[in-house]
From TrEMBL:
<dbReference type="InterPro" id="IPR010982">
    <property type="entry name" value="Lambda_DNA-bd_dom_sf"/>
</dbReference>
<dbReference type="InterPro" id="IPR046335">
    <property type="entry name" value="LacI/GalR-like_sensor"/>
</dbReference>
<keyword id="KW-0805">Transcription regulation</keyword>
<protein>
    <submittedName>
        <fullName>LacI family transcriptional regulator</fullName>
    </submittedName>
</protein>
<dbReference type="Pfam" id="PF13377">
    <property type="entry name" value="Peripla_BP_3"/>
</dbReference>
<feature type="domain" description="HTH lacI-type">
    <location>
        <begin position="1"/>
        <end position="53"/>
    </location>
</feature>
<keyword id="KW-0238">DNA-binding</keyword>
<dbReference type="Pfam" id="PF00356">
    <property type="entry name" value="LacI"/>
</dbReference>
<dbReference type="InterPro" id="IPR028082">
    <property type="entry name" value="Peripla_BP_I"/>
</dbReference>
<dbReference type="GO" id="GO:0000976">
    <property type="term" value="F:transcription cis-regulatory region binding"/>
</dbReference>
<dbReference type="GO" id="GO:0003700">
    <property type="term" value="F:DNA-binding transcription factor activity"/>
</dbReference>
<keyword id="KW-0804">Transcription</keyword>
<dbReference type="InterPro" id="IPR000843">
    <property type="entry name" value="HTH_LacI"/>
</dbReference>
Length: 328
């Protein structure tokens, strides 16, 4: 900065004002300083400036996997909304969801200097005392049952599942089979419990559960089993990718959708409307989840909130061509 000031014939304070975009600089002087910066290859040291004011304009994101639709879409939304607020994000993947893994990620983010951290916790880990997060760091958690300990933002998993099951019962199906996700997944558990509770409350039989791993291939394996059950006329699948596999298996085994079997998914992927047939599904508003995460974290950073509790983002049933009343 001193070199730029000497070359431009101004004070270091004027150089500082130009580098920060301060409006109180005469335009001719500003251009003179900018020319000196260009000639010397000078770039303002944002890290030093951040240390001086104690604000880094960066949010950390800890995530256990980007392979699932929910996680990848949520990270995308967080990055987008952070940018609108003038923040960058630093993403730290954690290979193993353990206490050591999460604490290691917090340590790395501390070294990289972030203002707050969003933890995308797809698995059951914060739900018990098995894992605690460092105190004194602004934190928002996504997709977890830890609302009594941390601020949590999540899709209303249970209500989405209830909408799906009730829609199939309202069409006249005697019961609804379910292809769920991994046992360790919080979202999978919430959707499974809601499926079971709706059937029980309606006095309908609860079929045996079929478990997948979120992939289309696991949905295909479950669909082959369902195709061999003549009384199966309706299936709620815990995500759209597994639903794609279910659709393929049913079609290959002579069970037409929706004439013989109705299918509802969960997520509302961009491709869901192009499935054959177009998939009836539960829409998750990932953009809103990301927005609320960023706003909640910024509120903590600015000392305007951050109490424990769960904020649920509503879901919507999107009706397409994969559902119909059962044949007489």
């Amino acid at each position: 900065m001193a070199d730029v000031a000497r070359l431009a014939g101004v004070s270091s304070q004027t150089v500082s004002r130009v580098s920060t975009g301060h409006p109180g600089v005469v335009e001719a002087t500003r251009q003179q300083v900018l020319a000196a910066m260009k000639e010397l290859g000078y770039r303002p040291n944002s890290a030093a400036r951040a240390l001086k004011r104690g604000e880094f304009r960066t949010l950390g994101v800890i995530v256990f996997t980007l392979a699932t639709t929910g996680n990848s879409r949520t990270v995308e939304a967080i990055a987008s909304h952070a940018a609108r607020e003038g923040y960058a994000i630093t993403l730290i993947p954690v290979a193993h969801p353990t206490q050591d893994g999460v604490l290691g990620a917090f340590t790395r983010l501390g070294e990289l200097a972030v203002d707050g951290i969003i933890v995308i916790m797809e698995v059951h880990l914060l739900d018990t005392a098995n894992l605690t997060l460092p105190v004194g760091v602004p934190v928002v958690v996504v997709d977890s049952d830890a609302g009594t300990r941390y601020p949590v933002v999540d899709t209303d998993q249970a209500d989405g599942a209830r909408q799906a099951v009730r829609a199939l019962l309202d069409l006249g199906h005697p019961t609804v089979w379910h292809v769920t996700g991994p046992a360790e997944s919080f979202a999978s558990e919430r959707r499974e419990k809601a499926w079971r509770s709706v059937l029980t409350a309606a006095g309908r039989p609860v079929p045996d559960l079929l478990r997948g791993d979120w992939s289309a291939e696991s949905g295909y394996r479950a669909g082959r089993r369902l195709a061999a059950v003549p009384e199966c006329t309706a299936v709620f699948v815990s995500n759209d990718q597994m639903a794609l596999g279910v659709l393929r298996a049913l079609q290959e085994n002579g069970r037409r959708v929706p004439d013989d079997v109705s299918v509802i998914g969960f997520d509302d992927l961009e491709d869901a409307a192009s499935y054959l047939p177009p998939l009836t599904t539960i829409h998750q508003d990932f953009a809103e989840v990301g927005r609320r995460c960023v706003q909640g974290l910024l509120a903590q950073i600015r000392d305007q909130g951050g109490e424990p509790g769960t904020e649920l983002v509503p879901t919507t049933l999107i009706t397409r061509a994969s559902t119909a009343p059962p044949r007489s």
